[in-house]
Amino acid sequence: MGQLVSGRRAALEGLARILDAGAPEELFTGPEDDAIFLYDLLVDSARARASSYYWEICRTARRRGVTPEYVVDRAVVLLATIEERRRADLYRILGVPALSSGEMIRQRFLELAKQHHPDAGGDSALFRQAKEAYEILREPGRRVEYERFWLRALGPFERVAVRDDVPLVTAMTGTRPAAPRPTPEPTPAVVPDAEPDGIRALFARADALLAPVATAEIAALRADLAGTIAELEKVRGELAAIAAVKRALEA
Questions:
Q1: What's the pLDDT score for residue 179?
Q2: Helices 68-87, 32-45: inter-axial angle, 10-degree rounding
Q3: What is the dihedral of CA 107, 148, 154, 122, to 10 degrees?
Q4: pLDDT single digits (tens) 165-202
């Protein structure tokens, strides 16, 4: 019985931390067991009324003077932020371990180039994405800047979510066994609206609530990401210019 009470208390404390977090990485800076528990709590809470922590969600909402759906929405926003950052991770795009050696990155890019180069009948979009990632990681100066960004904005997530993690919707079913649950107490008077249906609704809610979650830290991370995107756009422009010259010469 003591373990059940302890688990319930941990869930309540974890939900309070989720509400107070200005950015998702703030949740995963403590001991590994705590970080894993918070990630599982975040994933499970995003399931709203299907969550095994629904009672704790409702109680936390009542304590904070908000609705249970507000707590769920915060979990959805944080998960969406994590997934978006990981989707744009250059190491993940190339399919190499984070902070890999330059030689490993080069070898992997050559493999992808052989597989996806348009001249070999490959997927041109995948080839272009891999090439843009490689162009950044092969230049020492640009790679140092990206590594700094990675360590701050992506590194904390590697402790709690494996690199080949499934998409967000599937992940919400949970990736680890849930802790033993106590017998649910009566549902508090505050009852949320019906749970949103489908990933579009989840991301629509995430987009609507992303602004309140943003903080100075998020703004700094976005600025870093914007710089990286600008570099990618510059490389894309150079490639387009080269292609135009090549077409002119062929004509």
A1: 38
A2: 110
A3: -30
A4: 433 323 333 333 333 344 444 444 434 443 444 444 44
Q: How many domains does the chain have?
A: 1
Yes or no: say if 55 and 251 are a contact pair by the CB < 8 Å rule.
Answer: no
DSSP code of residue 126 = H
In Å, how far are 65, 133, 211 from 146, measured between CA atoms? 40, 11, 25
Strand spans (E) along 49-188: none
The torsion angle over the Cα atoms of residues 86, 89, 93 and 97, rounded to 10 degrees, is: -90
User: What tokens does 127 get?
Assistant: 């080839």
Spatial separation of the C-alpha atoms in residues 207 and 213, rounded to whole Å = 10
124-137 vs 102-116: helix crossing angle, rounded to 10: 160
Residue 238 maps to a domain: no
- Are 202 and 76 spatial neighbours (Cβ–Cβ below 8 Å)? yes
Query: By the 8 A CB rule, do 111 and 117 touch?
Result: no
Residue 196 lies inside a defined structural domain of this protein: yes
Residue 31 falls inside a structural domain: yes
**Does 41 map to a domain?**
yes
- The yes-or-no verdict on residue 163 having pLDDT over 80 is no
Predicted confidence (pLDDT) per residue in 119-156, tens digit:
878 888 888 999 999 999 999 999 999 999 998 888 88
pTM: 0.59
Q: What pLDDT, on a 0 to 100 scale, did the predictor assign at position 181?
A: 40
Alpha-carbon gap, residue 48 to 208, rounded angstroms:
17
Range of the domain at 79: 1-89+154-210
Single-letter residue type at 212: P
Residue 104 to residue 96: CA distance in whole angstroms: 8
Cα separation of 153 and 85, whole Å? 8
